[in-house]
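Marked as duplicate of an earlier ticket. Keeping the data here for the record.
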Amino acid sequence: MIRNALSAAGEPPALPAGYAGIRSGIVELLGVARLSAARSVNALMTASYWEIGRRLVEAEQKGKRRAGYGEQLIARLSADLTAQFGRGFSPDNLENMRRFFLAYSRSAISETLSRKSRNELPAGKSETVSRKLGLSELALVFTLPWSAYVRLLSVKDDHARQFYETEALRGGWSVRQLDRQIDSQFYERTALSKNKAAMLVKGAVPKPEDAVTPGDAIKDPYVLEFLDLKDEYSESDLENALIQRLEGFLLELGSGFTFVGRQRRLRIDQTWYRVDLLFFHRRLRCLVIIDLKLGALTHADVGQMHLYCNYAKEHWTFADENPPVGLILCADKGHALARYALEGLPTKVMAANYRMVLPDAELLQKELENTRRLIESRGKLLPKKRKR
């Protein structure tokens, strides 16, 4: 009764003895469990993709006498799987699965499973390497995330690819760290070095931005596609608040904007990009791609927007629609800028028509400045450095 009276008076109840130890233990337990869950999803996804690749290759081999059979198979399968399971089964992705199976042969996997069978496979399971492999068994082999294997497939030399895979496993590299090492030709530099051991030790040291949380692992675009989850994650609270306000502002203008989506992912080669807002303009009959930058406008931003427009024209635009237009919004502190990317339109007449129908850039700049001031004045949201 005394404890309840104190609590009612506003004083917190006394903590039980050893609470700090209990809390830290549970925090550690949940952290390990969540990371294990993310790794399990990745491992099963990768195992599934290897098995899909195997079936594609074997189907191709059976139909090898027919010209273009493989391309026809992938195109039809992509359409059917996308209709049933959602994203993640584009022709490019299926081709990656096919290449993945070819790069990681049955014999190599059987050898790996034989090594693991002594300690990791259940008793009596070691003979499974000689028959059809189950997903749970394949998951023991593919311990890197699928994003890492996609990056490894871009390495043409077999020895270099095996080196990067080995070092990624040994050093616990994140996909970002693996990508950096491949781009910096770490394999070639190590091969030419007189002190290879020192090079390997130095290469294993991660940078602070390489740390991967369970949330990062689940938000991997490939995982989101595999689980058919929405990909609507902003990288800062300020960015998210600005996008929400701008979305509502454009719809309230009543000038023909129809909302299509936000945080829309697209992949060009092996690189993922994301556009913040995607609208369809009813009067212009075109997609409007909007990208928000929390900094000053650069030439790279303009080039990237043209890349988005070209991709959208090829992959997102229907035959009876006009070419897409891009809108770059820069919310640099103390200064806002709105710029339309119209240079890629077929004619100057079309560009002029777009300028007449689309909202005035100065109006957008004013709204962006007012919105940012309002958000920051509340003191609830602080800007964070955006990573691309």
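See parent ticket for discussion. The radius of gyration is 26 Å.
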